[in-house]
Design goal:
Protein name: NADH-dependent alcohol dehydrogenase
Distance between the termini: 37 Å
Bound molecules: 5,6-dihydroxy-NADP, zinc ion
Strand content: 5-15%
InterPro entries: ADH_Fe/GldA, ADH_Fe_C, ADH_Fe_CS, BDH-like
Pfam families: ADH_Fe_C, Fe-ADH
Number of domains: 2
Largest sheet: 6 strands, parallel
CATH superfamily of the largest domain: Dehydroquinate synthase-like - alpha domain
Structural class: alpha/beta
Number of strands: 10
CATH class of the largest domain: Mainly Alpha
Radius of gyration: 21 Å
GO molecular function: alcohol dehydrogenase (NADP+) activity; butanol dehydrogenase (NAD+) activity; metal ion binding; methylglyoxal reductase (NADPH) (acetol producing) activity
Keywords: Oxidoreductase
Strand order of the largest sheet: 1-8-5-4-2-3
């Protein structure tokens, strides 16, 4: 196990009766709040009205940035920065899923610099400070509420890029599983796959001696596999929604990669899918992951993939680790398909000519011309995986 520092400062307020604590938590930081949210969902579930009423009662001044869309755009961030600067906003509250929280994070740090927010995403400018931010999470998927990362799309350059800074880490997250009852079957499935992908990106490494992290990871995967299907069939099942959303937070907050070297492989490949065709992040991940594992499968890696099969899918051990690994990958694919995920990229509207463009962009958007994850991937490997998934 490698050396590591583990420090998650985000306070979690979890459960059905936490909203009453919101004004008090906000007042620890400020009183002029920019409320960042998506399109209709928070109004439909009544959460928007509840927040506004609470703010009025607590004399919190409210400014609003509605209309964040999935695969959130830089233009909307620019709009938020303008509101924040013109009104001396001293706190940002994101209410929604990952797209909303990711936008709020960039607004928070970009409001403290003079240059364009995109400069932060491309690493031309370093965050030096931030308006404190927090979130009310309404969808179990990205774990953005408890980490320091964010992913933003620039339609002009055709890029969807991740960036991160400790300044952007939310001060607190209010997580009420009931707010996720209204999440559609499609988004519940996509979110479950996203949580599983975060877990697997951290899990699939070689010989790092991080035994404990891998057992944590297997528990998170099993939790998703138990409760994802239940939440799809019974949207108002509190136990299912609660376990899924808590798994979401722990899959990507630093716990699973503590002591490990991880260079995520499927996420950069997926970000090119949603940059080009605006598809749902979790769906893209679920299509690619089994093909990626098939591409990785060789004598060196079969043991780890087989272990995943034994511990997560209860696959029976045979004399052939290689065959067991294949069964593990097939079980994963079957699970994703059982959630309604299409098995290939064509079904998501991709064309053959998209594949080399995405493989090139995937490499061009990285500091190094390869991905050094479970298996090293160069441009031609990425293209091969896209072709398999096509
Ligand atoms: O716009 P509204 O009306 O709010 O609808 C949203 C949106 O259409 C809807 N939704 C959210 N909560 C709901 C709800 N519908 C009904 N009831 C509710 N309670 O769900 C749709 C998707 O929302 P979005 O925020 O886009 O989903 P998600 O949380 O999956 O976020 C995806 C984005 O996060 C990035 C992805 O790349 C993608 O851009 N990621 C961010 C990460 C991070 N910051 O750590 C890591 C991830 O790997 C990921 O890359
Ligand atoms: Zn993800």
């Amino acid at each position: 196990m490698q050396d590591f520092i583990f420090n998650i400062s985000t306070k979690i307020l979890f459960g059905k009766d936490q909203l009453k604590n919101l004004p008090g938590e906000i007042k620890n930081y400020g009183n002029k709040v920019l409320l960042v949210y998506g399109r209709n969902s928070i109004k439909k579930i009544g959460l928007y009205d509840d927040i506004i009423k609470l703010f009025e009662k607590s004399s919190i001044e409210i400014f609003e940035l509605p209309g964040i869309v999935p695969n959130p755009r830089i233009d909307k961030v620019r709009e938020g920065v303008k509101i924040a600067k013109e009104n001396d906003i001293d706190f940002i509250l994101a209410v929604g899923g990952g797209s909303t929280i990711d936008s709020a994070k960039l607004i928070a740090v970009a409001a403290k610099i003079d240059s364009d927010p995109w400069d932060i995403v491309i690493g031309k400018e370093n965050p030096k400070d931030a308006i404190p931010i927090a979130s009310i999470l309404t969808l179990a998927a990205t774990g953005s509420e408890m980490n320091s990362g964010s992913v933003i799309t620039n339609e002009e350059t055709g890029q969807k890029l991740g960036w991160g800074s400790e300044y952007a880490r939310p001060k607190f997250a209010l997580i009420n599983p009931e707010y996720t009852y209204s999440v559609s079957v499609y988004q519940t499935a996509a979110g479950t796959c996203d949580i599983m992908s975060h877990t697997m990106e951290n899990y699939f490494t070689l010989n790092d001696g991080a035994y404990l992290e891998d057992r944590f990871a297997e528990s998170i995967l099993k939790t998703c596999m138990k409760y994802g299907p239940i939440a799809i069939k019974e949207p108002n099942n509190y136990e299912a929604r609660a376990n899924l959303i808590w798994a979401n937070s722990w899959a990507i907050n630093g716990l699973l990669n503590a002591g490990k070297f991880t260079d995520w492989s499927v996420h950069p490949m997926e970000h090119e899918l949603s940059a080009l065709r605006d598809i749902t992040h979790g769906v893209g991940l679920a299509i690619l992951t089994p093909y990626w594992l098939e591409y990785c499968l060789d004598n060196e890696r079969s043991e780890k993939i087989a272990e995943f099969g034994y511990n997560v899918f209860d696959i029976e051990k045979t004399e052939s680790t290689f065959e067991d690994a294949k069964k593990a990958i097939e079980s994963l694919r079957e699970f994703f398909i059982s959630l309604g995920i299409p098995e290939n990229l064509q079904k998501e509207g991709f064309k053959k000519e998209d594949l080399p463009i995405m493989a090139r962009n995937c490499i061009n958007n990285r500091p190094k011309p390869e991905i050094n994850g479970f298996k090293n991937l160069k441009e031609e490997d990425i293209l091969n995986i896209y072709k398999m998934a096509f």
